[in-house]
Amino acid sequence: MVYCLTDEQRQVQELVRRVARERIAARAQEIDAKGEYPQDMFDLLRELGLFTLPFPVDYGGMNSVLAACLAIEELGRVCYNTAYLLLVQWVPFGAILAGGDDAQKQRYLPGLATGELRGAISVTESQSGSDVAGIRTRAKRDGVGYRLTGSKLWCTNAGVADFVVVAAKTGEADAPGSINLFIVPKDTPGFTVGRKEDKLGARGVPSYALYLEDAYVPEENRLGVEGKGFKIVMETFNHSRPIIGARGVGLAQGAMDHAITFIRDRRAFGQQVGDFQGVRWMIADMAIQIEASRQLVYRAASAVDSGLGGSALATMAAIAKCHASDTAMRVATDAVQLFGAAGISNEFPINRYFRDAKVLQIVEGTNQIQRNIIARNVMSQAPE
Predict the structure, then answer these.
(1) Can you give the residue ranges of the Acyl-CoA dehydrogenase/oxidase C-terminal domain (predicted)?
(2) How far is CA 383 from its chain centroid?
């Protein structure tokens, strides 16, 4: 598959890069240190119209996941948390776009696209992280609606969301076919947002526990046909994983940027640290892996934009997410090493990149799960 950036996509890249450097970079350290939701950054992204990027023209968007990846990369290069603000808006949007009926789309998507509404999606439970089929939250029929009972963990953005798209089982069976997604407004009786998690990274966009105790939602809040929610979840994740990969590319590029600046300004044994061959090889390896990740991510994003689906897209998306997030962790680790003792000080930004990179290897399906997806699809397609 061949792709190239359009003039419009390059304009998005240049705009976001400039804004990231001039208006966002200076806030990044404070956002991480305080662990508070950066409303000013949300307002800035809304002002720039970036929430609409990956979605259809009908909602004011560019219909381009590749453009979304460019924006995420440039934001993540200076502030992982600000980049995250886009993603947490896009995943519930994608779920409703994939499984919602016309009435649901008209009710929720325009507001999500402009930032007038904020959403979240909640699948993870204490006993089932990447195992979506293992969730225990139940949705039992009650007249023309459902009663949802159960608990969730790590629901990012729930503290500010107007609604949460919640995964629940409509039957007692453990099969994936019993899962559905439900739009649960924040003011629903029996629906409670629990305490904020004190996270290692991604601290500026808090995650919460959720509790549902006979929370009633009408049938019109169910996405898709009953029992088909698992497919919607998987399709949503496949479409969003290149964007997760773009976060890894941005983190890695930002970590390398900081490392280069640091070693340029330091001297040891009578010469600049950056003149040592061993150090230069570390930088070269960083650059090689970052560029490899970037091309994998852009290719997967262009595949989404071209309409590719099924196992082919699932494999490409998993490869992009896995390689880019592993690269972010590797580059951030080496960058901390190049900082020496300063790398473990909270006064320097590089440990923020290290912590955020570790989170990225786990969220949206651990990298072990990505490898399972890749291996399963590759082996099923191999000649006999």
Answers:
(1) 227-378
(2) 35
**Are 254 and 325 members of one domain?**
yes
130-150, pLDDT tens digit by residue? 788 889 999 999 999 999 999
**Segments in the chain below pLDDT 70:** 1, 172-177
The residues carrying an active-site annotation are 364
The secondary structure of 307-347 as a DSSP string is T--HHHHHHHHHHHHHHHHHHHHHHHHHHHHHHGGGGGSTT
For residue 156, give the H/E element and its range.
strand 145-156
* Helix 80-99 × helix 102-114 angle, to 10°: 160
Residues 6+ apart with CB under 8 A from 272: 263, 264, 266
Q: Are 251 and 357 in contact (CB under 8 A)?
A: yes
The verdict on 149 and 246 lying in the same domain is no
In a domain, residue 1? The reply is no
In sequence order, which residues have a C-beta less than 8 Å from that of residue 288 and are 6 or more positions away?
none
What is the pLDDT, as a whole number, of residue 174? 62
pLDDT tens, position by position, 155-180? 999 999 999 999 999 976 666 568 99
Domain end among 62, 80, 114: 114
